[in-house]
Each structure stands twice: as structure tokens, then as C-alpha cells.
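ingest -> fold -> write
write: protein_1
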Amino acid sequence: MQPEILLIEPMMPPIESSLDAAYRVHRLYHAEDRDAFVARVAPSVRAIVTGGATGVRRELVDALPALELIAINGIGTDAVDLQQARDRGVRVTTTPDVLTDDVADLALGLLLATARRICVGDRFVRNGAWRRRETLPLAQKVSGKQLGILGMGRVGRAVARRAQAFDFQIAYHDLRAFDDLAYRYEADLTALAAGVEFLVVAAAGGPQSRGMVDSAVLDALGPRGIIVNVARGSVVDEAALVAALLEGRLGGAGLDVFVDEPNVPEALWSLDQVVLQPHRASATVETRIAMGELVLANLAAHFAGQPPVTPVV
């Protein structure tokens, strides 16, 4: 008998086909009455497959008595209660490494787009302003500037490697300094922000990092400073960020993540110094397939009685 799994959100078609071939898949996102759907399938569901941003609610985990595994299609675990999983003896897996390059690429893309006002220039051409010989304000130079990175995990390091090609002077903040990194370590985040022109947020989400980029950090970054967030919206105090941008205390922001997705503060929509993305740093065909294949590998290992390939819990 095929193991039964609960699929919280859609995946790439080839991955879903592989899931259907190996498992009995219950698609929660198709259910009109989710509570009734869960009540019907709950006794037999042994695994959940979900996205990093979506995660899984505590109440849903509690409702699945046979649950053995939560396979996250992403690297974020802040939307899953890991302690609850430990208490239940439920394994949790993620898809590390395979999305690192895409996330780092988008971080640099957001920085370039924000500083050089690429989206503003695009609109300038499309709405006929260039043809009308209107004037477009000058942008901000990128190369050779001071770059700060919050979080020197896989993504932060990948950002730093790319940043070297722009002759950035790189500094970072993390829980500790890393002996294998030649970049300058700054133990105080506010001091890091005060000493750089650009700040890339690549720290893991969760209670330990919630709101750590606060108004003091944003003020230290300053009216010509730019923040880029490809981590989790919760790492930045969003209300403080909006206020700093509206009041001109912060120069710009390139944002892929938000506190209450998909609800992006409307105050940001009309700001030329802000570039917005719908949480799609890993959204390339190649990476989403690779992520899905790692989800499949974790499921296959677990149901074969082997340790998961990329466990978190």
C-alpha cells in the first residue's frame, strides 16, 4: 500500500507526477472545505509536503496522528514549529544548497535594480517620458561601495562571492566570526549598518532574529543607504522600514520577503526607491525542479527506513 501524504501547495508538474507515482497524494490546496478534508484524510497521512514560507500550522500537525515527516520545499523553517515536531517524534527536512545560487543572484539583482533605479528607468521608457525628452534623476553608483551582510550562512557567503566582482568592501554580522572568512566581522549590527552603504539581509528567520533590523539599524544605514532582504520578512521591523523610507531616513530597499505575505504594505507600492518581488528568489525552473527532487529524495529515504537526506529535526 502506498504511503499517504498531504500536499499543502502545488509543486512543479514533474515533481507532482513523481509524487503521484509513489504515494497517495491528498492535495489540501484543492479542498473547498479544508477542515472537512483534513478530518477525512487525517488518520492515514504519514507525511506533509509544504513550502518554506507556507509551513504548517500547529493545529494541522496535531490533527494528524500518524504523521512521521514534514518535508519542506525550501530552506526556511520558521513557519514550522520544530519543537512540536521534536515532541511528536516527527522528522523535518529542508532543501538546502540547491537554491543558494538563485537567492544570491536575486539579492545582487535587487541591489542593482534599487541603486541604479532600473525599474524606474523601465517605466520612464514605457510611459513615453524619454520620447517626450523628460528628465530622469541620476542613480547611485554600485561598484566599489561598502557592503554589509547580515547572516553568513550559505546564502550570505554566496552573496559575498558575487559581491567581490563588484569590488565591494565586505563586512558581515552573525552570531560569531568565522575563521574561514577574510571579510571584516562586526559584532554589533547597528555598527555594521553605520559603516556600509548597502546591507543585504540573509539571516535565518524565526524568534531569534525577529525584528533585529530595527529603526536604529535603518537610521545607521542612512538616507543614502539601501537594504536588500532575501531572508524572511520577520527579520526586519517592517513598520520601521516603511517609516524610514517615507521619511527619507533610508535611501532605498529591494525586498523579496514581507511579514504578512502576500500582503505588502501599500505605502511601498508607489515609492521609486523601492523594488518589490513576490517572494520568488528561488523561482527558476531549474532550482524548483532541484528542490522538488530533494523533497522526493527525503520522502523516499524515510519510507525506505533510512535517515532523511537533509534533516533539520
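write: protein_2
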Amino acid sequence: MLMRRRTDGSVRVGDRVVAVKPIGDIPEGMEGRVKVIDGFGWVRYWVAWDNGEWMGSVDSASVVRADRLEQWRAEQEAAQQAAAERAEHAAAGAATANGDGDGDAAGGGADSRVPEHLLERSRQARARKAAQAAG
């Protein structure tokens, strides 16, 4: 019988797993072996940990196959960087929409959801006021 190698990161009975976050008394980084897999929509495991303790109902988000740990860490780091970039972009967009940024920024109407003709009317009014104050 030909066995295919798994590339999807799924966990099977007998696989070595690593806790990627604390689970009860089990610290992050503890290794164990999966003994039972339960669930359909919410997959959970019975794990025999290396310290001799058994634990049931271990959530699939709490453990990663030992051979995928470095890949999991890289994915988590990339996700954190992407989230930070989105937050930074959102903060910059909020500053522009609140008038803290350059009012003439390209795409200002699309970001703030204000129609372009109203933004132009505002620019003209500011220009008139500046001309009156100067003159």
C-alpha cells in the first residue's frame, strides 16, 4: 500500500504535537502524542503529554504538528506583520479623513466616502476664506 505524504498540516492519531499556547497546566512548547481525535466542525484531541499527563478536548488551534512548528511560527509572524500594516494604513486613512492629513490627497473622496464634488466645493471655500483674510 502506497502512503502519500501529507502537506496540509492536518493532525492524525499518533502524530507528535507541540502546544503553541498554554493549555491548563501544560506550558507552551510542551510536546505530546495525539491518541484520539474527536469532532466534525470543532476538531479536538486527546493528547498524552511528555510529562505523563493526558488531556482531552485540546483545541486544534492550541497544538501544531511538531514537524510543522517552524512553518507555523513563520505564518504567525507574517500574519502579525500584515495586521500591523493594515492598522497603520487604517490610522493613516483616518487621519486624512478627519482633516489631519493633506486635504488634497489623491483618492480622498473614496477613502472618506465623501463625494468628490463636495470635497472640491470645500477646497474652493477654503481658498476664498484665505483670500479674504489676506486681502
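write: annotation protein_2
The longest strand covers residues 31-38.
The chain has three helices and five strands.
pipeline exit 0
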